[in-house]
Design a protein that fits this description.
By secondary structure, the chain is α+β, with helices and mostly antiparallel strands. The chain is about 55% helix and about 5% strand. Bound molecules: zinc ion. Zinc ion (ZN) binds next to helix 17.
Length: about 725
């Protein structure tokens, strides 16, 4: 079983309450804490935008389920909506600040949680659309708006009077008779203020604001540079012989892409992750593989206008400085404090515990692949651009399995229904297709979701296909947050995004097994968002739980994709309807540990790289002159083999330099301790749908978000702490 590391969604920088995409989904904000919103008495802009009657953000939405009226939202509606939203939020926060009543839970803590609803509404739509259907105008607005939102957020968190009110309520907490959820909100709100710098002196606060604004600005530039660099490259093939090895579906997509670019006689391959991996795996032409590999790894480090090297070094430096101001040795220590791992040392030693067996396994894999090279009569030594290709050959040889044989059993609609089936068996959840509701793109499939007792849980919108205006990767996100305050039980609107290539006209959309797992993964995040029964957005669902725990409910679902009784339901041949033969299932399962040495190594390399950047002290970060050189030296220091690259090189490591995963990329593997151990509980019970375990899992994990500390939630489900052995076993590293 391979774990997914797709892009966590991007980062709605922090100004808003808890907008998080989870990549995996979510938008995480730069600080790592989801928080509140901001305050200032100054007008937002010189001249307030006139309230345009046509602007959908200035009206209530009478659409079904309150789904955003996408067709009515034009690019020019966002700016005035942001301005009005900021204005409203400021007014609300000033009211909290200047309240003559003594501070209490309702007039301070809950009021802060409620503030900024209009700003949240526009931010969520904007944050999603700029990831799924962006354009130049929206990209310009991103660069402009995110630093403003960060400033608004800082204005709240660094406001002395508001902090004194929060502190007063916090100090009195034991006498307030709060229930568990309200106490949790109070503790997290207080912690957010302290961690944002509320207790600092005025000079330090001023510097914090400068740092946050600058980071917010360059995070966006980093992401945009990467998108430009990824889109700019085209491998144009004009000789049919150069397509040797590639699947007909992929060739069809490349032809369609060429036609859309005005090159009807050619085939065009881009650098989106799906195309890249498939090309590296199947293209027989070694020179073309080398070109793709080189281009992919050179992105945003080519000395042109899109170069990210100086930008990322500056981010690392600013983060280090900020951590020191807040009283931490470095950014990693700051980030890890509120995570399950607690300290960078603990995260790193965990990584190294898996790194060594991973390297050993990779060595064995390399030796086996080199034999194939020799058998083919070649005399070259395997290099980076050969690994994927020969790993696939080795897989075919050892497990007699190939993608062309497997893919017809994984038709997209069937796989989706398989995921729905698992949710129904585990949690009693049902899904009903929604007709005639607004969508942001015609390929989007909307559903309503209901709990076992028929209670409405939310709207789930699936956007599975790749397009040029969409960022790469896979993620879950939110169009409307759940909240249950003041008698208004608002249910969420959740999305899942994948980047599956659009098939040629009239063809089925067939997935490889990796894509099947990705679909189940994002679906798991989706359930975490949909099932939530938390009252406050601050700790609801995916965005409300710690980064190194929040992948657990997603990765847990991946295990189900390969279970025989699940495959039997969904893995049906696209043309014949025949259920996948048991022999093929056995092969897929036997092959599940294949290439895990490589996968483990490239992933841990990236995780160690991330921690290394963020373990830097300010003077060390300032001393970095060449980001690429720093990376190479760091990787050499850990003994990374040359044939395996870090999954991300720093200039395109958007998770950590543009997203919310800084000092947190290790989180996927950390969460894997939990999903491997948690799924083992079901195996030991002899029933992958064991009702008792499923009920505890639903209650303590999928419904509870960040209600309690992650280790407590896990124990409440599992009845004990997790152990690392199931992870090593599943990866074949034991
Ligand atoms: Zn994820």
């Amino acid at each position: 079983m391979t774990k997914k590391h797709h892009f966590p969604y991007k980062f709605l920088p922090a100004a808003i309450l808890a907008v998080a995409l989870f990549g995996c989904s979510e938008k995480a904000d730069e600080s790592g804490d989801e928080g509140l919103t901001a305050v200032s008495d100054e007008p937002v802009v010189e001249e307030l935008a006139t309230m345009d009657a046509d602007n959908p953000f200035f009206t209530d939405w009478d659409t079904p389920y309150g789904i955003p009226p996408f067709a009515a939202i034009a690019d020019e509606h966002y700016r005035p909506a942001f301005e009005a939203g900021i204005e409203q939020q400021r007014a609300e926060v000033v009211k909290i600040r200047n309240n003559p009543e003594p501070p209490n839970f309702e007039n301070t803590i809950e009021a802060l949680q409620l503030a900024g609803s209009e700003l949240t509404r526009v931010s969520l739509v904007f944050g999603n659309i700029t990831n799924t259907d962006t354009n130049d105008a929206l990209q310009e607005l991103e660069v402009e708006i995110y630093p403003i939102l960060t400033g608004e957020r800082d204005a709240i968190y660094l406001d002395q009077v508001i902090f004194e009110r929060v502190q007063a309520v916090y100090d009195a907490r034991d006498d307030l008779d709060l229930d568990e959820q309200s106490m949790r909100l109070l503790e997290l709100t207080h912690r957010d203020f302290v961690r944002q710098g509320a207790a600092l002196d005025e000079d330090a606060k001023a510097r914090m604001k400068e740092i946050n604004a600058r980071i917010s600005e360059i995070n966006t530039v980093f992401a945009q540079n990467l998108l430009k660099e990824t889109k700019a490259f085209e491998l144009v093939v004009t000789d049919q012989a150069d397509l040797s090895g590639l699947a007909p579906g992929m060739i069809g997509s490349a032809r369609a892409k060429a036609e859309s670019k005005g090159k009807p006689e050619a085939w065009v391959f881009g650098l989106d992750r799906g195309t890249y991996e498939a090309f590296m795996t199947f293209a027989d032409n070694r020179e073309l593989r080398r070109q793709m590999f080189t281009a992919y790894r050179a992105r945003a480090a080519q000395g042109n206008d899109n170069d990210n090297r100086d930008i990322l070094a500056e981010v690392a430096k600013l983060r280090a400085e900020r951590a020191v101001i807040l009283g931490y040795p470095n950014h990693s220590a700051y980030q890890l404090e509120t995570r399950m791992a607690k300290t960078p040392g603990k995260a790193e030693s965990f990584l190294l515990e898996v790194w060594k067996p991973g390297l050993k396994k990779a060595d064995e894999e390399l030796a086996e692949m080199q034999v194939i090279v020799q058998e083919e009569g070649h005399d070259f030594i395997i290099e980076g651009h050969d690994w994927w290709y020969y790993a696939e050959k080795l897989r075919t040889k050892k497990y007699a399995i190939n993608e062309a044989e497997v893919k017809p059993y994984f038709e997209l609609g069937n796989v989706r229904d398989g995921a729905f089936h698992v949710a129904n068996k585990l949690f009693g959840v049902t899904f009903e297709p929604l007709e005639d509701v607004p969508v942001w793109n015609e390929v989007v499939e909307p559903y309503t979701v209901y709990d076992a007792d028929g209670e409405f849980l939310g709207v789930f919108m699936l956007d599975y296909y790749a397009r040029d205006s969409k960022r790469g990767g896979a993620w879950m996100s939110t169009y409307r947050q759940t909240s249950n305050m003041q008698g208004r039980n608002i249910r969420p609107i959740i999305t899942n995004n994948l980047n599956i290539a659009v098939p040629a006209e009239g063809e089925d959309t067939l997935l490889n097994y990796d894509q099947v797992e990705t679909l189940f993964h994002e679906f798991g995040h989706g359930l975490h968002g949909l099932l939530t029964q938390v009252r406050y957005p601050r700790f609801a669902g995916t965005s409300g739980s710690p980064r190194d725990y929040t992948e657990f409910p997603a990765q847990f679902m991946e295990h189900y994709a390969s279970q025989p009784q699940v495959l039997e339901v969904y893995a049906r041949h696209a043309e014949t309807g025949e259920v996948i033969p048991q022999a093929l299932v056995d092969k897929i399962r036997a092959a599940s540990t294949h290439n895990q040495g490589f996968k483990t190594t490239e992933y841990i390399a990236a995780s160690l790289l991330d921690l290394s950047w963020h373990n830097l002290l300010p003077n060390e970060a300032s001393a970095v002159e060449d980001a690429t050189k720093f990376e190479d030296e760091t990787m050499t220091g850990f003994g990374k083999p040359g044939e395996i690259g870090s999954r991300y090189r720093s200039p395109y490591f958007a998770h950590i330099f543009a997203g919310g995963y800084s000092a947190g990329y290790y989180a996927y593997l950390w969460s894997e301790i939990l999903d491997a151990d948690g799924f083992t509980a079901f195996k030991e019970a002899g029933d992958i749908y064991d009702p008792e375990l499923a009920a505890r899992l639903k209650k303590n994990v999928y419904q509870s978000g960040g209600l309690r500390d992650a280790d407590v939630l896990y124990r409440d489900f599992r009845g004990k702490d997790p152990s690392i052995e199931p992870l090593l076993e599943i990866r074949g590293l034991d």
